[in-house]
Amino acid sequence: MVVMRAAGSVRCAPDVHRAPSEASRPRHETSLEHGSGVCVGSGQVAILTLARGAPHRDRRSSTPGAFTSATAVVALCRQSVPPSRDALVVRLDTDLLRMMPTERGVLVPVNGTSCRLDREALQRRAERSLSASPRPFLRWVGSKQRLLRHIVPLLPDRLHRYYEPFLGSGALFFLLQPKRAVLGDTTDELISAYKAVRDGPSHVLRYLSGLDPRNEALYYDVRRNRSGGTYRRAAELIFLNRGAWNGLYRVNASGEFNVPFGAPKTSHLIAPHHLHACSLALRPRGVSIKSADFEETLDGAGNGDLIFLDPPYVTRHNNNGFVDYNENLFSWNDQERLAETARRLARDGASVIVANAFHSDLLDLYNEFAVIPFSRASTLAGDRSARGTVTEALFIAGTRGRGRA
User: Fold this and answer.
1) Nearest to residue 399, comparing CAs of 310, 335, 304?
2) Which of 58, 138, 159, 194 could disulfide-link 306, Cβ–Cβ 3.0 to 4.6 Å?
């Protein structure tokens, strides 16, 4: 078994999105706050402004007609019949996504079925993973967003399809933005939220408007009285996620979200252009999202695919009772199934990266894989001074990283 070590810190840089120049803007426009709907009549053109108030020029920019990153503008085509509110919002989403400025892609098509990694562009995005766009729209315990810069050197030079059956915040997916991917998780509400963001980000933003995650009474009211609609419920999840203690997602025996209020310091929920960028990454026809066990999500994976496996686990009991403590989270039988699946996929020619606890039982389970242990600050202790550090590991097989080991 080969053991390698990784170290370093993440640098952040701002991301700025610009709208079309003023010269190209239609004469008639309607300002919409946070993606709410509006109807336009025959011969009219509407402008969707995803910010509070009218669009304004960014004085810091030397580009004529440049707008601040909080503002995105899209023109609707003329229509002879005024559309319904819901139909218009979907149309606004579609047209907005076509016109949104995007960062340079990190996957370069090689042929009809595979892509080559642009490592220079990928490393730049990973270095500023906390400000890159798109990036996760949810906080998630165990997210590997701060670890991305260490994962990049381990990725294969080419990939056919990307698989992530423990989706969580989707940090690596949003970094890569593959056009062919299979994403899954067993948390139904999480998967429903991803589909809502994919299909109707403006609907989600409309329901987010006016919600303040600092309002404790509102937090518990929303937590207690969840809605049934897809887009409203997705907005509620984002709101609860921002207001919950440490961004934790936990449900009781009845399947009800029961995380206590976390007293966030800011009212910010999510920038509209950020949610639209996430939608854009999820929309390619080759990207599927499913609520399923990891074996079902990985059905069909094989040669040339990149598999990222990040199952739920608790590191606090690495040296004492690890197996027993995790039994209700991700059982040892599940760990054995996952390891066998990972070995099979590696034998079939897939590149496999497994994130898991750095524990002797798991080192034995993945004894055919190279191992990279890493330490990070714990986030699950109520008192920051008591959090300390935890040690986890990346188990890798069939990747560029193993070749270098």
Assistant:
1) 304
2) 159
Q: Which tens digit of pLDDT belongs to each residue from 197-237?
A: 999 999 999 999 989 999 999 999 999 999 989 999 999 99
Cβ-Cβ contacts under 8 Å for 11 (sequence gap 6 or more):
127, 128
Point out which residues pair with 67 in neighbouring strands.
57
Select from 167, 107, 101 the least CA-distant residue to 138: 167
Among 390, 355, 397, CA closest to 375: 390
Nearest to 58 by CA among 72, 79, 44, 76: 72
Of 164-168, 226-230, 383-387, 395-399, which range is least confident? 383-387
- 8 Å CB contact between 171 and 145: yes
The whole-number pLDDT of residue 92 equals 54
Virtual torsion, Cα 83, 84, 87, 91, nearest 10 deg: 40
Cβ-based burial of 183 (10 A; exposed 0-12, middle 13-18, buried ≥19): buried
Name which CATH class applies to 107-186+292-404: alpha beta
Q: Which of 144, 111, 187, 150 is nearest to 7 (CA)?
A: 150
Question: In whole angstroms, what is the distance from residue 241 CA to residue 257 CA?
Answer: 10
Question: Within a 13 Å sphere around the CA of 72, how many CA atoms are in the beta-carbon half?
Answer: 23
Mean pLDDT of the chain: 76
How many CA atoms does the CB half-sphere of 321 hold within 13 Å?
6
pLDDT of 47 above 70: no
Burial state string for 314-340 with b = 16 or more CB within 10 A and e = fewer than 16:
bbeebeeebeeebeeebeeebbeebbe
Which of these, 248, 177, 239, lies nearest to 208 by C-alpha position?
A: 239
Give the pLDDT of residue 74.
37
